[in-house]
Structures
1.
Amino acid sequence: MNVLLIGSGGREHALAIALGASPLLTRLFAAPGNPGIGEVAQNVALDAANHSAVIAFCKAHEIDLVVIGPEAPLVAGLVDDLTAAGVPAFGPSKIAAQLEGSKGYTKDLCREFSIPTADYERFSDAEGAKAYARQRGAPIVVKADGLAAGKGVVVAESMDEAEAAIDMIFGGAFGQAGAEVVIEDFLEGEETSFFALCDGECAIPFASAQDHKRVGEGDVGPNTGGMGAYSPAPIMSDAMSARVMAEIVAPTMAGMKARGAPYRGVLFVGLMIGASGPKLIEFNARFGDPETQVMLPRLDCDLLPLLLASATGKLPQAPVALKPQSALTIVYAANGYPDSPQRGTEIHGLDNARAQADVTITHAGTKLQGDKLIANGGRVLNVTALGEDVADARRKAYAALEMIDWPGGFYRRDIGWRALAR
Ligand code: AMP
Ligand code: GLY
């Protein structure tokens, strides 16, 4: 099979490695890819926003499956256009991607299909939103409805903070994504992520992970795309996974089908596990980054037929086979991330680091300048290790990371602390 992978981050590098290991694979292309992905795939300069160019490429190179990493092409309807052109694509349609693209859409689905989540209301004016927030009381959570690069959520500790967030969003901080606001109750508990593969009718469990969203050690400071992660999430016992499948994923599949928008692809379920069980915080319509970097090394089966079945057929009705080991990844970010990451610094020592047993290094934001490897983004590298448990994976990952010579970058030294504390 020939596969085209869309994206250029660490998540896509992990996907490229897993797809590259498939005996079913003939050729793997990545658009646009990155220098790491280029070692296992052929990078092509193709703009994912230009759907007719993507379709023409697929026809010319006899692509059997397009695997889409990030959310933007999904929300823009790339899967719909590829499907209409007869090219199988892994990921949800434009309408189904509203599970990530619109918080209000998802909350209404939860209400209609009794999916456990925080109580909420939707607003298109500041006065109504403020009155509701005052009625519910702090702490309260204020969310821009649309995609806001992970910055559209404010967990407000006080009413002043809630009102400021409402004014900020309606003031246009996120453009159209902030035309509507969702106000919801604050949920207590432990946050975790769960992933299910879906074929429009059914879903099967994939894996669980926990990430560290804040930039600073001890989980403080600004939110980021994620500074590290591990899989499995210790809190996700088999019993808890079964509850999430039954109480959240299954009714979502049924609800989307009933709405005429059957969900295909991977469903990324952001959860709060509290005293009364799992509650949905949010859905994403794609694999997580860096969660994918820790889930895929644990895979004990071929990824390619699973993604193909999700896109075009029926998934096997058995959970995905996983190794019993744990994986942990550390994000090596450019100094200044997330506010103003410094680009252009040189990275040395990768070959030593990646020669370590059970270690994988994925590129998230690099470029080649001649034969020099240069930082070219916020999150630049991911150092991932597989171990007997989180502590073993963590020891191997930090040992490998310390072999990298990159004064232009920083990383958190406490990835996995919550799992270790258990
Ligand atoms: P989201 O983009 O919806 O995942 O929200 C970003 C982050 O805000 C989440 O990862 C949580 O840490 C936090 N958050 C969102 N909604 C809630 C909620 N209802 N209660 C508590 N924390 C929340
Ligand atoms: N790491 C969180 C995400 O991929 O959205």
2.
Amino acid sequence: MHIPLSPKSRRKAAAAASKEEDERDDTTLDVLETVSQVRAKVYSKRHKEQKTIAFVPTMGGLHQGHVSLIQLALNKYDFVVVSVYVNPMQFAPNEDFDLYPRTLEEDLEKMKNLRENARMCVFAPKESLFGKGVDPSECAHVTVPNVGQGLCATTRPHFFGGVATVVLKLLNIVKPDAAVFGRKDYQQLKVIEKMVRDFDLDVEILSGEIVREPVNGDASDADSCPGLAMSSRNTYLTEKARKQAESISVALKDVADGISGRSDEFTPAMGANMAQGWVGFIKRCIELSGGKVDYVEIRQRETLEGPVEKLVKGEKYVVLA
Ligand code: PAF
């Protein structure tokens, strides 16, 4: 159970935090472990220093993709809170909650390399945000219909409810002006945007580009997998599986290259052929590499409505795999 701070103790905590701030060395990155520490820090930044606040939620295992989201937040806002929390509610009992990479020391080093310690803090809760010893399935739970169904939810039906619930909790704890999510997890981004709209949450949602393994990386490096979208879970992949995973980005890029600059040639009659052609092509590329397809779909880019079976000129789509 989290006991909210009274206005008096909040002011006291903020004064103590800001005294500590004045005295501290800029090489130190603040790592906060409790909800009240984060609330006090944000209160002090916002009300004493009049700073704008951005928030980057992560589950740790940081890679360049996360770093780019943190950089995006630092570019647009005065102060950035990064959370590192492996959320039990988004894992089904048979999934990898115990195995999920927990690399806090390395994560902190990557954040320190940004040389923005004075403009950042890390929220790395030591205890479950759902309460010590409390089963998360006993807690209030957010459901996001439509965009939260199909695609990834077909094989992981529990997933988006768990993500939306913890993000709502984190937004209530940090109360940022903006929160940043990666477009790699496009359905997750849309789920969060819908939750924010449906609950009238007063927060701007920013999205960051997918960061991929370098295409001109060292080819002799067994780990090199040009174009593969960076993900904390890539560390699970064997060399063979990494090569299979690479087929997704290669196929998506081929489709994107094939379309770009060709909209003048598009006729209504081509709409259905193109949609089926792309989906079939991407599925085949994945299967030929030895991979197994969960889904390849074209959806409306903003609403995720679909699957789209016939393309219409002027509409904006996203291809998801
Ligand atoms: O994308 C992630 O890492 C997680 O789903 C998030 C948004 C941090 C919620 O646990």
3.
Amino acid sequence: MNQIRISLEVAAALREKRPVVALESTITSSLGLPAPYNRECYDRVEAAIRAEGAVPAVTGILDGSLIAGAEPSDVERLLTATRKVAERDLPIALAQGAPTAVTTVSASVAIAARVGIRVFATGGIGGVHRGAAESFDISSDLGAIARHPVLVVSAGAKAFLDLAKTLEYLETLSVPVIGYETDEFPAFWSRTSGLKVPARLDSPRDIAVAAHAATISGWVGGMLIANPIPFTDEIPASEIAAAIEKGLATAAASGATGAAVTPKILAAIAAATESRSIPANLALAESNARLAAKIAAALLD
Ligand code: PSU
Ligand code: MN
């Protein structure tokens, strides 16, 4: 039977109105990070959320069910799953009784909303791809953030995307975009992009106030909280630029289309930086998880 499975721990936290942070599972699969870094990412993100007194709720599909929160025996299966599922793929994967699948930001935000989790953390969201004027490749993450009442904490969007067009598209969708302690939209590995964020807030409390104000205003979707990578972990934009160009060229030459594009680019950039992009990726994911946990707590105050 197709269903939604909420882990015991997450169900208890929701019932008792304790803070919960939803997570995606694509980033911690081989489609997001090579082993063993995918597990390190998972462990560090979970630990950061718990250290703030919140409960992590990884999302995915197991045995034909949506899951929110993994039982200990589920974790390995999610780390090794190879089917990437976006929001529009959820009904099909359930109908097929998919044994395992990992969820992208769009699918994870949909699941979070479904079970009443209000805050979600990831590394970087998908966005408008470079060359989108020709390819029309715009991640469904953006539409999902607009439609589901979930606060999404990310280090901006991956710098291989067209960040200016990503911000334009978020404006078109009416998604509030908030820079956390920054005036600039962060570029994942780098703190700066040269692009201004529409608004800046400097505390989890202020973000909780803004979320409440969004509800008062009648906004039924989510908000994007852009949290720059910590200073000490940053790779300057100038250093990563060449690796991005190389990664994009490798991905284009591979002929990948659709959902296969982003994993191909991620792997090619990791290769082009001789894996130097990876520690930065882990650090920003952990930092986003910590901020998300603080926001989840502030929402309940
Ligand atoms: N950015 C990362 N790692 C990832 C992704 C994005 O640094 O693994 C994944 C996320 O799951 C995101 C998805 O939701 O890629 C976007 O894929 P697409 O571009 O196909 O929409
Ligand atoms: Mn796409």
4.
Amino acid sequence: MALWGGRFSSATSDDVTKYSESISFDKRLYKHDIMGSKAHVKMLAAQGIIPAETADAIRAELDKIQKRIETGDFSYDITMEDIHMHIESALIEVLGAEGARVHSARSRNDQVALDIRLYLRDQVDELIAGVRHFQRALVLQADANKDVILPGFTHLQHAQVVVFAHHLLAYVEMLDRDAERLADCRKRLNVCPLGSGALAGSTLPINREMVAEELNFSRCTRNSMDAVADRDFAIELVSALAIFAMHTSRLSEDLILWCSQEFNFVELDDAFCTGSSLMPQKKNPDVCELTRGKTARVYGALTALLTMCKGLPLTYNRDLQEDKLAIFDALDTVQMILKVYPPMIETMVLRKENMRAAASDPALMATDLAEKLVELGVPFRTAHHRVGSFVKYCKEKGKALDEVTLAEMQETIPEATAEFLTLFDPEESVAKRNITGGTGFAQVEKQLEFWKKNLD
Ligand code: ARG
């Protein structure tokens, strides 16, 4: 009979047992469940709700159970539904009536809310460390290639020349906001729900603050109904993960393009690619493609959580058991991304000559011509129009922008001087973008110094 079997006359049907179990996925909460129970019984004893010897015996037995779980000497049984029931039953099995005191002034509703918060708090700390590591890999690759230039794109069309390091540092910025978002949701995670009971607290004289302090929470939740009903902290975390995955997916898309024969800007190490079962010549950037695909699953987790919560009347409803599948899947996916990407970034090889060659397209410097006109006093819109006509002229003549004479240029840009013919040097074009946040070499150097210092 289940631990809650008192008011039931017959057992749950086998299919319902299978349908409602969560042990197959919530067993990963064991450590945090035990941590929470240990703090709980310590408080119960301090408050005189259970004898001190009982609390000691329970705490010692919980440690043993943890060891048993970790060494594989613990059996799971879906009739015991979830990790909370498993651990409580194991306690009772050994300690009998003493063990049966552990659940005083507690419900699985506040217990599971506690366990998820404890688990996610650890995960967030790991995730932040992982994101920082990822940033360091990007900075390392950027620093090694701070003189390399390539075309920057808008609409996937040649736009203006940029420094390769600047491109990578754009992702470092994105990841920085991801780390900040994680740190921010940790604040709201780090609040202790234990003592909220099923929904209405307890008649027993518990000391919630003591448990919160014991478990290193910043405070207790203020409202017991809110504490057992909401999962917004998990939604927030998964949404931060979804944004992170989106950033990584975009980086992956850049890499996929750069690896293509058409671009041929980088080559990923063999360790991060796979071949074709049919075409012997293939080397495919599967990791990057998988990340685009897995990002969809992280979005799916976010959508599942939001949808799961939107129609729930207060307070706890069993629907909430499903939250863990979505949360764990999103976490596992992102943890894998964080493992695979830093070494993939660090080992990729640049085809600098190809980047440089693509960056030499003089059309990339068309904006520089317009800005030179602005320097000479021409209103920008007029300047833009003149250079546009010049580009059209070149196109009609079948010439590159740097293949015309000054006289030809002056047909469409009357203000053009000999200096205009020198504006097609890609390195100089980059160097001149020496403003805060710009891609000028000096600015990129500054950004690199900033990150090297801050990521140390
Ligand atoms: N396995 C449940 C969950 O994950 C634990 C809480 C069950 N509470 C209840 N009243 N049935 O949500």
